[in-house]
Design brief:
InterPro entries: ARM-like (IPR011989), CAND1/CAND2 (IPR039852). One of its GO terms (biological process) is SCF complex assembly. Keywords: Repeat, Ubl conjugation pathway. By secondary structure, the chain is an all-alpha fold. The protein has one domain. The protein contains four helices and no strands. Helix 1 runs antiparallel to helix 2 and helix 1 packs parallel to helix 3. The longest helix is centred in the C-terminal third of the chain and has 17 residues. It starts with a helix and ends with a helix.
């Protein structure tokens, strides 16, 4: 909630790159969760186009592990 919408727009490519990295993926998912849960009215269409395929692939790969929790 500290970044303006314009500042957040410049973060999307960085967050998308971090999602593609196995080591930084989980912290990035947590960061994205915080952004999505923000009370601010943010336009998320730009990031959704790129992140949904990455996240769905991640979920498919880890489906068995996630089901255990």
């Amino acid at each position: 909630d500290l970044l303006s919408a314009e500042q957040l727009q410049s973060c999307w490519p960085v967050l998308t790159d971090l999602l593609r990295n196995e080591i930084t993926r989980l912290p990035t998912v947590r960061a994205l969760t915080n952004i999505v849960d923000s009370p601010l009215n943010l336009d998320l269409q730009t990031i959704l186009i790129e992140t949904v395929p990455i996240l769905s692939s991640y979920l498919r790969q880890n489906h068995r592990f996630i089901k255990m929790f």
